[in-house]
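Suppose a colleague, Dr. K., hands you the sequence of a protein chain of 303 amino acids and asks what its three-dimensional shape might be. Before reaching for any lab equipment, you can write down a predicted structure in token form. Begin with the sequence itself:
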Amino acid sequence: MKKLFVFLLFVSLSGSVLSWSGEGHILIVDLAVENLSPAKARELETIARQLERSFDTDRRLYLLNTYRNASDLAKISIFPDRIRGASLGELFEQRGLAIPLPLAQYANADTSQWHYTNQPYFSGASEAPQCNIASDTNVVSVLPPLMESYKLAEDDMSRAILLAFIIHFVSDTHQPLHTISRVDQFCEHDLGGNAFCATQRGFGDRCDMNLHALWDGAVGLFDRFDTYDTLHQVFAGRNADPDLAEELDTDRWLRESYQHARFIYTLREDQNPDDIYIADGQHIAFTQIVLAADRLGKILEEL
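The predicted structure, expressed as tokens, is then:
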């Protein structure tokens, strides 16, 4: 196993962030594909092309020009973020397909809540309140019916849609702020860091970076690279601890994310992260990305 590494240089947190919902998702899936057997990789690439070809022309050209060397499977990983407002039934009906039976209960609901769950984290000095802030339908609960539906699917377009959700949500569960949310003594929470300002406020009390967005961007790590190819080169060939990579229990994944909460919330609200926070945060993000890719590869090999 090659040793994980991460550059510890300070990077600017201003400007655009290559988010976990874009480059991060594509990177994780690309790394996972590299771990697949050639036969499985060819099978999944063929399926993924069915969905990719249904994208509008501008989207296809954007993906081609920005991620020219990325796998087709990686390119469809961003699909779930683009259709959050559509109901699951609509996604299948628009393509003349029947919604898979294991997902029938979700037919009339959109998929916006599928991208996260909320484990309450209390950082106060008093006794922690007993808070239940997680939705019954969340990023962990939908994975089993999605995988069951994939195995039952009889056409490649249905498989491609389900595959896009599976690869996206395995990645989401490894971004800690998709699974934890800080609470106060009244169980009010910060929406997975979306309501936590992670920089000094500007004119008119404007906040240019919330905590969730900071971690979506791997705490500034993605900002160092001008192209996707250079970003990919830094991660290529890196592997997680073999024992951790074999752990496919999503409850274990949630516990791992929760363990990162103490560090994540050492950042003071309305303050810029210092060099140490950035360096340590990027190390955690790097490790989570590699771990997500290794675990995803094992899941895909068995689909």
